[in-house]
Design a protein that fits this description.
- By secondary structure, the protein is an all-alpha fold.
- The protein has a single domain, classed as N-utilizing Substance Protein B Homolog, Chain A (Orthogonal Bundle).
- Helix content is 75%, strand content 0%.
- It has six helices and no strands.
- Helix 1 packs across helix 2, helix 3 crosses helix 4 and helix 4 runs parallel beside helix 6.
- The model has no long low-confidence stretch (mean pLDDT 92).
């Protein structure tokens, strides 16, 4: 498994743990590092992603809700909302990552960590956002 894929897995586990347990991200990272001993490269990428998600969470949640059709962010499963936050962060704030890579990685994370419906749910929201905003370069309007 590549360092970036592993980094995304770590990021999702950290975001999930902090979300569900209500713990600071630094504590979630410390717990993860102590228990799993990840590679430095994967951990560094995970930290970049988690910091980015945390810095833009309000914006990310607004985009997710806009494209989730009748699903408020707090009603989504914790794993699904954090996978979506990560992917939307990558779509808007990581130009070094192609949009299709971010979407595909999110769907794979949903298959690995979510419910049976998670992959379709995540893909549906990200595909709609991609088609209506990212692919059209309409990033100037707010969520």
């Amino acid at each position: 498994m590549g360092a970036r894929r592993k980094g995304r897995e770590i990021a999702i586990q950290i975001l999930y743990q902090a979300d569900v347990a209500g713990m600071p991200l630094s504590e979630a990272f410390e717990t993860y590092e102590d228990f799993f001993k990840p590679s430095a490269k994967a951990l560094d990428f995970a930290k970049e992603l988690v910091k980015g998600v945390a810095a833009h969470q309000e914006e990310l949640d607004a985009w997710i809700e806009r494209f989730s059709k009748n699903w408020r962010i707090e009603r989504m499963s914790a794993i699904d909302r954090n996978i979506l936050r990560l992917a939307v962060y990558e779509l808007f704030h990581r130009p070094d990552i192609p949009p299709r890579v971010s979407i595909n990685e999110a769907v794979e994370l949903a298959k690995s960590f979510g419910s049976e419906e998670s992959a379709a749910f995540v893909n549906g929201i990200l595909d709609a956002l991609y088609k209506k905003v990212i692919n059209r370069e309409e990033r100037s309007f707010a969520p």
